Amino acid sequence: MCAESYLLTSNFAHPGRDGNRITTVVATPGQGSDRPQEVSYTDTKVIGNGSFGVVYQAKLCDTGELVAIKKVLQDKRFKNRELQIMRRLDHQNIVKLKYFFYSSGEKKDEVYLNLVLEYIPETVYRVARHHSKNKQTIPISFIKLYMYQLMRSLAYIHSLGICHRDIKPQNLLLDPETGVLKLCDFGSAKHLVRGEPNVSYICSRYYRAPELIFGATDYTTQIDVWSGGCVLAELLLGQPIFPGDSGVDQLVEIIKVLGTPTREQIYEMNRNYSEFKFPQIKAHPWQKVRENVQYPIHGGCVLAELLLGQPIFPGDSGVDQLVEIIKVLGTPTREQIYEMNRNYSEFKFPQIKAHPWQKVFRARTPPEAIDLVSKLLEYTPSARLTPLRACAHPFFDELREVNTRLPSGRELPPLFNFTEHELRIEPSLNLKLMPEHARGSLPRAWINMSGSAIKMPFSRATVTKSNLAGNFTLPSLESTQDKLG
């Protein structure tokens, strides 16, 4: 990447007529013109922070509109990837970049990028947590509305070759009055290019696709689809479907539902794997098992439980318990396995059958919802539905009915105002995506177009057994962030 030049703005602050502080900066519009202009805002307050920086809420003086200002430290050596991507995006289900400007930091040569974004008051995460605290599940009509808009936003960014790489409920903004959902936080997003490697240590836990856990660096935009499937399952269950404090934990949770992946599936997730074994994990020091235990535990599970106040190796199955044991004792050596069972020649992960999806969810969960989850959470990335095919799934048919309303009685937000670009993504789906009552506003040629599909990001051909050689092993999970991006 090349070095970036910046138009540094000096924040000019002065009191307004009501006594509130007004800040005026020179900012560039997020879309369209590159001509800088003065922008004034007031009522600034911190609403979020993290390793990325700080997010403020403010009010634009000229319109009274609330905005969110995301302030991040800018590395002068590189262009900011989030800014480059945000300037390309224009979709009703993606948070809009209104302006951006640079400001100086307290330290010498310190530069901050400020992204001025439209402000949306709620998130799917907070809505889900509210229902969970009240021991309620989110009404299925809202789940349909949220997931449809998420999949539509993914279809759009994927058609541009952009992978979000951090789909989770916290990054799904909601307007509770209109029901509009907008995807936000493109800080991890990247334009994926065939043949260029990417970091595998990406995406938040609980929502990481298995190919990322397996250390793949040539993944596709379908990792976002897996994350979306996890979000759907979480909204239906009221809790994350694949929780875990580590990649090992999460992989075990995935295997308990999907079963042990086949050789073909592992090959499709990461072609660099030649055998499927359990990862090598170092033993955890006994002194650190619990800080208030003042001496090493040598006396077995009962003694450990008395000292800890809880079972040391809990688990609903043998696999769970084995993982808990390995997390403390480390992966057993060949000699130790031989001493435990002389019929074992090496330590392979046990073969586990897939758990019926119907038994994962509550009895009253709509079968269409379960079917959609099962088609999003596939080991093989290319076997997962594309986002637009997910939008066409029968689970969302109710949204396409002419009389469907929000529970409040208000009309649904715009769901079928597809642009020509969107209708060129997978033209064969257009008649399904566009209900009869919504077609009048679009040129008939757009709806009936064929043979002009947008070229989507690369996907792998289906693998056959003849492509494969050797045995398959579970990944090393000690990967760290590298320079691939």
UniProtKB/TrEMBL annotation:
Domain of life: Eukaryota
Pfam assignment, any one: Pkinase
Keywords tagged on the record: ATP-binding, Kinase, Nucleotide-binding, Serine/threonine-protein kinase, Transferase
Domain Protein kinase positions: 41-396
SMART domains named among the record's database cross-references: S_TKc (SM00220)
CDD domains hit by this protein: STKc_GSK3
InterPro entries, alphabetized: GSK-3, Kinase-like_dom_sf, Prot_kinase_dom, Protein_kinase_ATP_BS, Ser/Thr_kinase_AS, STKc_GSK3
GO MF term list: ATP binding; protein serine/threonine kinase activity
Chain residues that bind ATP: 71
Gene Ontology CC terms: axon; cytosol; nucleus
Family designation: Belongs to the protein kinase superfamily. CMGC Ser/Thr protein kinase family. GSK-3 subfamily.
Entry protein name: Protein kinase domain-containing protein
